[in-house]
Specification:
mainly alpha; MetI-like fold; 2 domains; transmembrane helix; MetI-like_sf
Length: 300
């Protein structure tokens, strides 16, 4: 009898159940806490941009004032005109940047879509080994390859041309191939089998079946490529020497006076160079987020 009593689990009194009003109040408190945390985090990230914006509208005296002055007494919009049309040809820099970015994006799409489809849907010997080797290249820092690439391109006579910045983009980027491959594996195999029964070739399947369904992933790749090439500074500085061939990032790096730097004009030009990225991101925000989400958590 004692053993049976000891073996019985002790009965615990159930806690008081929450009413619907109490549960709703708890949910509101949690939601409010999440919103407050997001607002504080957003304010922390937006402070540098706000400082850059207010600095671009200050006068020279307000720019050098101590203690620093957050907001100008009067808005000097002419800083944008003076900075852009000053001693440096920023219009030419803009056209150079657009050319390099557009061709690099095209190269990324062509060179990444084809191997991503092959890794996702075509069976070949040692495909897993090749895909693992591809992913291993992502662990190599880009700075390690700068010296051998410069030696190779200098022997080819490509220094002070756009070729070292554009041609490598036509040979694939491991991260983009991985993201596209992850998205392609989520497309039902039945669609591909039906296209093959109808006599479609692999390129026809890729063009007519896979690419229309992969628009979110392609949008994410395009945005990554656009931002990376638009803001590229290190390799542009290594290969481009002539002033008429420089990009916006290099132009901002040269925005220094002999005795004093016009920080208000520099910030004005920096904001103008950021506008294309902001516009493209806000226009394609939903597609970009959907593409990143699907390529990040889906796949086989």
């Amino acid at each position: 009898m004692l053993l049976e009593t000891a073996a019985r689990p002790a009965r615990t009194k159930p806690g008081p159940s929450l009413t619907s009003d109490q549960a709703e109040r708890i949910r509101r408190i949690r939601r409010s806490g999440a919103y407050i945390l997001l607002i504080i985090s957003s304010a922390v990230f937006l402070l540098p941009f706000l400082w850059m914006l207010t600095t671009s509208l200050k006068s020279d005296a307000e720019n050098l004032a101590f203690p620093p002055q957050w907001f100008p007494d009067s808005f000097h919009v002419d800083n944008y005109v003076k900075g852009w049309s000053g001693s440096l040809p920023f219009t030419r820099f803009l056209l150079n940047t657009i050319l390099i970015t557009a061709l690099s994006m095209l190269g990324n799409l062509i060179s990444c879509i084809l191997p991503a489809y092959a890794f996702a849907r075509m069976r070949a010997r040692a495909a897993g080994v090749m895909f693992t080797a591809l992913l291993a290249t992502m662990m190599i820092p880009r700075e390690i390859t700068l010296v051998p690439k410069f030696i190779m391109f200098s022997k080819l006579g490509w220094v002070d041309t756009y070729l070292p910045l554009i041609v490598p983009e036509f040979f694939g980027v491991a991260l983009y191939i991985f993201l596209l491959r992850q998205f392609f594996t989520t497309i039902p195999q039945e669609l591909i089998d039906a296209a093959r029964i109808d006599g479609a070739s692999e390129l026809r399947i890729l063009w007519s079946v896979m690419l229309p369904l992969a628009k979110p992933a392609i949008a994410a790749i395009c945005l990554f490529s656009f931002v990376g090439n638009w803001n590229q500074y290190l390799e542009n500085t290594i290969y481009l020497r002539s002033v008429e061939k420089l990009t916006l990032a290099q132009g901002l790096g040269m925005f220094n006076g002999q005795f004093v730097t016009q920080y208000n004009q520099m910030m004005a030009v920096a904001i103008m160079s950021m506008l294309p990225i902001l516009v493209i991101f806000f226009l394609a925000q939903k597609t970009f987020i959907r593409g990143v989400t699907l390529t990040g958590i889906a796949g086989r």
